[in-house]
Each structure stands twice: as structure tokens, then as C-alpha cells.
Amino acid sequence: MKASIVVLGGDGIGPEVTAEAVRVLEVVARRGGHAFTFTPHLMGGCSIDRHGTALTDETLAACQASDAVLLGAVGGPKWDDPAAKVRPEQGLLGLRKGLGVFANLRPVRVHPRLVDASPIRPERLAGVDILVIRELTGGLYFGQPKGRSKKDGVERAVDTLEYADFEIRRVVALAFDLAEKRKRKVTSVDKANVLESSRLWRQITTELGKARPGVALDHMLVDTAAMRLVTSPAALDVVVTENMFGDILTDEASVLAGSMGMLPSASIGASGPGLYEPIHGSAPDIAGKGIANPVGTILSAAMLLRHSLGLEAEAGWIEQAVDAVIEAGARTGDLGGALSTRAMADLVLARLQ
Predict the structure, then answer these.
(1) Residue 264 near residue 299 (C-beta atoms within 8 A)
(2) Per the confidence metrics, is the pTM higher than 0.70?
């Protein structure tokens, strides 16, 4: 197979971890007889510094023309002024819109050897294997109107939480599709006791659930979901929710795995290239030190192979290699070990080869 992959290293530790994921993909390509081409582009703060915008038209066009996009992380203190008109996160939101990726898949699986790395009691972590599906292009982050105003000495800010029926239907339908390949259980998270948008979400989800009788559906308020994630996470399988709730809940769920550095994500749409990135941020405090955990990005590369290139076996090669090195005791600093970014990736590469 031939595939074109755009690499957006971004800011902070982003270029460090994406470099290791590219090394892994290069080995997979050689082993599987594939031809992957990697094209780097700037996005985020580094793009603001170079071009005055977080996402140039050229970069977006390159991503749209690719088979998949691998992203590191964006942002950092240098561009952290909330009043700034141009911010790194604008590039990420623009990229999601430009690629039409409406669903963010975030698997949360607890490796048995890493239960001690989590602050959650070990008995609560046994058997945890959750797939959170976050709606990605609607809700508060994209709603209009938004902005600030001042009148009669009172300053106001407004953000609008808005969802159209088709936006809800397509992401929930995907959740049911994926649940059929797992434990056939979907938990839909909303705030239907307060928000009109959540009441529409629950209505449409219920309708879709009636057409999928082979998949169990339950509804859960977001505050209850936040509690259940840490008190009984093994009871959850596929969780689907709106944009902001998903953003918050998946960061909470990373505590289960012991570190944000362990978790990958895939953002996919109805067609076109997917966007693959670790769930962690740019971690400017450790940028340039070579100590970031590359596993989340390496596992994101596995998701890239599976969801964008249809290479299920090759995705499994990477996941099995990561499991093997974790089982053998490999740990970066975030997991209580001392391995560097490169050393951790080297161990994965050795297993692949």
C-alpha cells in the first residue's frame, strides 16, 4: 500500500513524540511491504510565529489531500494570552472543521502492569476497557453567537451551545456501530435535566437505540458519569457524548491508565483523512528534555493504520509491541521510570523488528 501522511509536530513535546511515531510507522511499512511518505507542516504556535496564523491555507490543503494526519500537540505559555486574537487552538479547531472529522475516538485501556501508576484503587481498574466517542465539530466550541460586550458598566461574555439533529445522529450512529464490535453496550452522556441541547441529544439517541435492539443503551447525566469513571469504570464500554463533556471526561479517564502519555486518539469523519494525536498537551515544562512518553502518539499511529489505511494487522503489531514492552517493565518518567523518549520508542521498535 502507498499512503501519504502529513505530520504536524506542533509545539512543546509534539515534535519529539511525533518523530518517534514516524520511526515506528517506517518500520511497519518495511515489515509490511508498504510505502508511506511523511510530509511535515507547521500548525499551532510555531505556525503563528512563522506565518501569523495557527493554520495556513497551504497546510490545511495538504492535510485534506493526504491519506491521514499525525499530530503532536499545540499551545504553550508563549501564546497563552486569552485576549490574543490569534491562538494555537484555533488551528486545531480549524483543522477539525476543514477535515470534516466529527467523532473523536479515545480508547482507555488499563494495562495490568500499570495499575499501581494510577491513583485509583487497583480492584476498580480490573478489566477497564472503555471507548469514549466525543462529538467534535459542534457544541460550545463552535456555537454562534459568541463574544464579549460591555454596556452600562457591565461586561458580559456569551458562548452558545448548539446542536443540529444530524450532528447528533451521525456520532451516535457511529457509537452503535463500534459497540456491535465490542460488548454491545452504549452509554450516552448528557445533561438533559438542564440543557435543551441535551434533551434533543437524548431524544435522538433513544430513537436510534430502538432501531438497534442488539445493543444495550443507557443514558447518564454528565455529573454521574464523572463519578462513575472513577468509582466503577469497568462497568462502562462505549461512551458517547457532546464536545465539551467529552473533552473533560476523557482527561479524567486518563487517570485510570496512569498517565495522559499513554492514551491515543483518532478523529474521523464520514470520508477523507483522519486526524490522529495523543490526548496530552504540549507539556512545555518538559519540552526539549527528551523525557516525554511517546506511547500515546505511537498508539495513535496504530489507530491511523486501522481507521484510515485499513491495515488492521499492522495496527495490531504496534499495539502488541507496546503491550510487550510495558509488560517487560519499560517506563518513562510519568510512569515512575527513567527511560527517555527515544529509549522507550527503541524498545517498541525492537519488538516490531
Answers:
(1) yes
(2) yes
